[in-house]
Amino acid sequence: MVYAIVRAGGRQEKVEVGTILTIDRIKSDEQGNITLAPVLLVDGDKITSDATSLAKVTVTAEVLNDLRGPKIVIQKFKNKTGYKKRQGFRADLTRVKVTGIK
Predict the structure, then answer these.
(1) What's the chain look like in SS3?
(2) 14-73 pLDDT, tens per residue?
(3) What is this structure's pTM?
(4) Taking the mean position of all CA atoms in its chain, how far away is CA 28?
């Protein structure tokens, strides 16, 4: 079983070939592919974590679609002063499918 821990959008995700991830919005190349930076690689019983060996490893993924996350409502309120503020936020996300770990 081969899997990798990759850095994607400020977080670390465990991926195998065929895994579908939802990460922060990322630009793809002309063919719709991206490469993710590996932090750890597990190939059966062999575990690779040093930076020189991981520089040779590439984790490729194809972009399935771009989407937006759920709305987060931020509300501030101060009692007895009449101050209230309401703000919303929706994250820009990208759904990707891992196609190869080499």
Answers:
(1) CEEEEEEECCEEEEECCCCEEEEECCCCCCCCEEEEEEEEEEECCEEECCHHHHCCCCEEEEEEEEEECCCEEEEEEECCCCEEEEEEECCEEEEEEEEEEC
(2) 999 999 999 999 999 999 999 999 999 999 999 999 999 999 999 999 999 999 999 999
(3) 0.86
(4) 13
Q: How far, CA to CA in Å, does 72 sit from each of 33, 87, 88?
A: 30, 8, 6
Q: 97 exposed, middle or buried (CB, 10 Å; 0-12, 13-18, 19+)?
A: middle
Residue with tokens 């101060």: 78
- Quick count: other Cβ atoms within 10 Å of Cβ 78? 9
For residue 76, the Cα-to-chain-centroid distance in whole angstroms is 30
